[in-house]
Amino acid sequence: MRNKFIKLNSLLLAVTLLFFVACEDRTELTEPGAPASGNADFARFVSIGNSLTAGYQNGSVYQSGQDYSFGTLIAKQIKTTYAQALISDPGIPNRLQIKDLTVVNGEVVGVSLGANPDLGTPLNSDYNQPFNNLGIPGAILYDIADTSDFAAKSVARNNPFFSIVLRSKELGKSILQQALIQSPTLMTLWIGNNDVLGYATSGGTSGTDATGTLPTDKNVFAFLYNQLVTALDATGRNIVVGNIPDVKSIPFFRTVGPQLGVGIQAAQTANPAILGLFYQKTGETVASSFATPATLISGGVLITLTGSTYAGLVGVPSGKYYRDYGLTPGPGIDTTQVFGLHPQNPWPNRFILDANEMAVVDDHTTYFNNTIASLVASKSNFALADMNSFFNQVASNGYTSDGISFTTEFLSGGLFSLDGVHPTSQGSAVLANKFIEVINSKFGASIPYVNVASVPSSIPLAKINPRIKYAPFFLHGSLDNLPF
């Protein structure tokens, strides 16, 4: 049966990359004019959140990225202090970077994406107060009020950031306590993303509910978020809340599948016996379903960016996936069959969101956002930054700020970094301006907007390369084990 399938050794992910050597520049921000506060008080600004708040980008946290976290940018615009747990470049964990370029006749025909082998170190762990930026990569809603030992939690979750950011219970026994002990006058709260994102990025194989298999239970989320809002409301301070974007629209889910679809479609022209991409559903070993090229191209199923390593093996007899993950192939699996194009050697469940799993993501995201919107609307000192609608707008129509155009395309879109989930520095400036827009509108302030063009685009290069404009490239390397 193997002979019925064409080999797709050359099937790689072709996308468009726009970058300049200037992305390494540390351009200084334009000094903003003095803001008028209206009903807001800018004296003490604190942010609660996860990796999006922490300034995480390109798979890592590092100072040259943290310098452009959206909270830092807001703090500069309102001229207030804003301390955060700084980590030296190249950061923790190993930062993703453009490693090598292949140039033929002056045109870039290949780019290798890899991880920087070095790690950064915390720079200001001896700071004797809670940090203003309490964004912790990997944090879920439950973590905000959790008083577990920080060091033990970092070990148990294989996530050093609880220890790096929170450090000592003498500064406050939880993220929430460390925020409130600062008597903040203005806050941003952006949490809950990981309560659905963890399920999605794992291809529906793990989650944050009590069973560890689904997103956070909807009733639990509502209970915890109500507790959090009640505690913050008691301060009487102004709080801007971000809601949860549709995680399915980010490059992490929209890059690999369409390229596989195009490649399989081309292969079908030579060999009509190819049906499509056979993939495992949860609980399966041998595949019962396949996605046609049209389904892959349209997003009827979504391939995660972590699967990019194996995309080039589709159509080749291979057991590399099982070897890489130290797995014994399950009943019925035959790795001598062509990978991905045969039901006995299917595309792995962890690298795909099928229609049922996407429905779970949609259901929980909608419920979580309705909960957030209802609670925010009930508090006069709260305002909603509708990040869900904004990201949908960018995905549908793009977005332009200070002459720079953004889309949700991987790399070429400029909004998302190499990990396909977190914004670039310029992307963080765009997000900062969305929060500023809400602060100005809700509280009668007149904070000047960040000049997005003054912020570096921040795609890290392993070495300096000649200035290159539009460059098609092939994506290689692994994005596994990112602590979203």
Description of the structure:
- This protein is an alpha/beta fold and 484 residues long.
- The protein folds into 2 domains: 14-252 and 358-474, SGNH hydrolase (Rossmann fold), CATH 3.40.50; 272-353, no CATH class.
- 30% of the residues lie in helices and 14% in strands.
- The strands form 6 sheets. It has a 5-stranded parallel sheet with strand order 5-2-6-7-12, sandwiched between helices.
- A hairpin with a 2-residue loop joins strand 13 and strand 14.
- Helix 8 (218-233) runs parallel beside helix 14 (355-377).
- The longest helix has 23 residues, at 355-377.
- The protein is globular, with a radius of gyration of 23 Å.
Write a concise keyword list for the protein shown above.
five-stranded parallel beta sheet, two-stranded antiparallel ribbon, 30% helix, disordered N terminus, Rossmann fold, 484 residues, alpha/beta
